[in-house]
Amino acid sequence: MSVLTGNNFVEIDFSIQKVAIVKINRPEAKNALNTELRKQLAQAFTELTFNDEINAIVLTGGEEVFAAGADLKEMATATSTEMLLRHTERYWNAIAQCPKPVIAAVNGYALGGGCELAMHADIIIAGKGATFGQPEIKVGLMPGAGGTQRLFRAVGKFHAMRMIMTGAMVKAEEAYIIGLVSQVTEDDQTIPTAIQMAQSLAKMPPIALQQIKEVALMSEDVPLNAGLTLERKAFQLLFSTEDKNEGVQAFIEKRKPSYQGK
Prior knowledge:
By secondary structure, the protein is of the alpha/beta class. The chain is 44% helix and 16% strand. The two termini are 28 Å apart.
């Protein structure tokens, strides 16, 4: 277990080969996302981005709560200028721009910034008792870390508007139905399921995984023809990788491939 410096709000577990488990550890505040915690998350994901020994990441808040939102006490007296100068978008970008597959394992509350944090992942595994929501409207605010953008792209206008404008909370089963989560499990299986999936992803060819993630995310913001061009170019690029040769040869020889990320 590698614990980051500071108040130790974030822990990174490297005990599983090629997989890192990033755990938010602020239970006394239900993992509320204060500035120091966000800094440590950014530090963790920056470290993992450049760690060639890690191929997949699990992000979790533990078995009780994912993250109950931003730390309102920290924002209570802040002015617009103070909020601007905090540049919290820099911390979020470290997660959003991580090229490796990220799986969020969500138990308990994922509200406000916690819901937005989960949506930075590529796959969301939720326990049956998990609750998602963007309740900022109830305190005179609005989502400020992607809630009006990523949520729209995930669930569409009408589900997103209901959640954002009313502050409605959505249980895991409904979140699955509307497209906010990838899979629902028993609460005690959320993290093990995410780890098992991460282990499976970690055995995949890393360059191909990174190209899939990059092209899929970039294509959200471009016309279809441009997205198809990005996809085609990335597809062609993979034909120069050693992993492509290994994968095809292993298929022909009816054996398991061994990918090296080359």
